[in-house]
Design a protein that fits this description.
This protein has 17 helices and twelve strands. By secondary structure, it is of the alpha/beta class. It has three domains: 2-138, N-utilizing Substance Protein B Homolog, Chain A (Orthogonal Bundle), CATH 1.10.940.10; 173-226, Alpha-Beta Plaits (2-Layer Sandwich), CATH 3.30.70.1170; 233-422, 3-Layer(aba) Sandwich (Rossmann fold), CATH 3.40.50. Strands 5, 6, 7, 8, 9, 10, 11 and 12 form an eight-stranded mixed β-sheet that branches. The longest helix is centred in the first third of the chain and has 22 residues, at 112-133.
Length: 423
């Protein structure tokens, strides 16, 4: 536990200093000597869990400290240990004892007494501290106050449920490759392997319990992929057919591109600004044994990569706040700033206007985000329509899609879709 606590507290401290959690963990896990699978799993759980409930844990820690703690490494360790005490199944005495030893391992021996006292005080005063922490909204919902306020304004009937859902573990959903199997047949194959799940979409299977992909029958052969059920709507909403020329802009890591190719024999261009991320698309396509033209380029600057031949369908899965997927990326809650939303909206508008130029008349463009904020979604589309007289919004073909805004629930993450027709 000492090594896992050390790694998790290092990761949490770096995220709170502004770094991406996945990148931090990748760097920590790549160091030598290699970690055991148990150490990696424990460090990852502690890191994700601490950031998932950071608002509550931070409020509790502030109540326990007599004065602000300036040492970020010790503060992060205390947050990790508090997460373990409140949310994990680890024995209380083991968490406290190992945290005291971890203080010495990170060369902060001066804080051994402080760590011991803070954690034992939490165990003695737990009910009262939890009640006090929940008296403030950041402590109750573990989201920044600006985020809470925005959801309350935009979703007056759903905001509390959305915040609570964001603090749960995400579902693990599979997408069955319709070229290789039917959803019913793959469900039967899972049952034969002792894996429980149920169908939640045409090709979507929600697993009862997450598991490593190497345990999924046929995964290496491209029979199935991991993709959120809400994300699977994109390819179907775009309405592709054999022979069409299709662009997947901002395509990495390639899940939606792969789904498009599974649905129809199309001529697909997968575009992404990052050449390294293009490699992930190519890797995914090799696994499902399908091909696309992978191009490095900025979706907002088609003059740098477009060959002049219009596309009949475009998927514009634009950069966004990712406010709909914080269950999977809890660091987003604490890395985002309210001012970021306006910056994303400007970038999205630039991409939309640019891609509209490369869409053929009579073609369709599906605008997609993994955001729940109106500035990036409904308001963005309203502004786009005011700029383009040749654009109109089409009704979505999936009845459950409603008006295009999916809010996170037990089956899928938060997404927004708008299907635009070029007259």
């Amino acid at each position: 536990m000492i090594e896992a606590q050390r790694l998790a507290s290092t990761a949490v401290a770096q995220v709170l200093a502004g770094r991406n959690l996945n990148q931090v963990l990748l760097g920590l896990f790549s160091r030598r000597p290699p970690l055991t699978p148990q150490q990696r799993a424990a460090a990852q759980d502690m890191s994700y869990g601490t950031l998932r409930f950071y608002g509550t844990l931070s409020a509790i820690l502030d109540l326990l400290l007599q004065k602000p703690l300036q040492d970020e490494a010790v503060r992060a360790l205390l947050l990790v240990a508090l997460y373990q005490l409140q949310y994990s199944k680890a024995a209380d005495h083991a968490v406290v004892d190992h945290a005291v030893k971890t203080v010495q391992a990170i060369k902060k021996a001066w804080a051994k007494g402080l760590v011991n006292a803070v954690l034992r005080n939490f165990l003695r005063q737990r009910p009262a501290l939890l009640e006090q922490a929940a008296s403030g909204e950041e402590g109750r919902y573990s989201h920044p106050q600006w985020w809470i306020d925005k959801l309350r304004r935009q979703y007056p009937e759903n905001w509390q449920g959305m915040l609570e859902t964001n603090n749960q573990h995400p579902p693990m959903t599979l997408r069955v490759n319709c070229r290789e199997s039917t959803t019913e047949d793959y469900l039967a194959l899972l049952r034969r392997h002792g894996i429980a799940g149920r169908q939640t979409g045409e090709n979507a299977i929600l697993l009862d319990q997450p598991l490593a992909v190497d345990r999924l029958p046929g995964f290496g052969a491209g029979m199935v992929s991991v993709q959120d059920a809400g994300a699977q709507w994109a390819a179907r909403l775009l309405d592709v057919a054999d022979g069409m020329r299709v662009l997947d802009a901002c395509a990495a890591p390639g899940g939606k591109a792969a789904h498009l190719l599974e649905l129809a024999g199309i001529e697909l261009t997968a575009l992404d600004h990052d050449p390294e991320r293009l490699k992930k698309i190519e890797q995914n396509l090799r696994r499902i044994k399908l091909k696309a033209l992978c191009v490095a380029g900025d979706a907002a600057k088609p003059e740098d990569w477009w060959d002049g031949k219009p596309f009949q369908r475009i998927l514009a899965d634009v950069p966004c706040s990712a406010s709909g997927v914080v269950r999977r990326h809890p660091d987003i809650k604490w890395l985002r700033r309210e001012a970021d939303i306006a910056a994303f909206a400007r970038q999205q508008a630039q991409i939309l206007d640019a891609l509209w130029r490369v869409l053929v008349s009579g073609g369709k463009l599906l605008y997609a985000t993994c955001s729940v904020f109106a500035e990036e979604n409904q308001e963005q589309i309203a502004r786009f329509l005011s700029r383009h007289e040749d654009a109109q919004v089409l009704p979505l073909s999936l009845a459950e899609a409603g008006k295009g805004q999916l809010i996170p629930n037990h089956q899928h993450d938060g997404f927004y879709y708008a299907l635009l027709y070029k007259a």
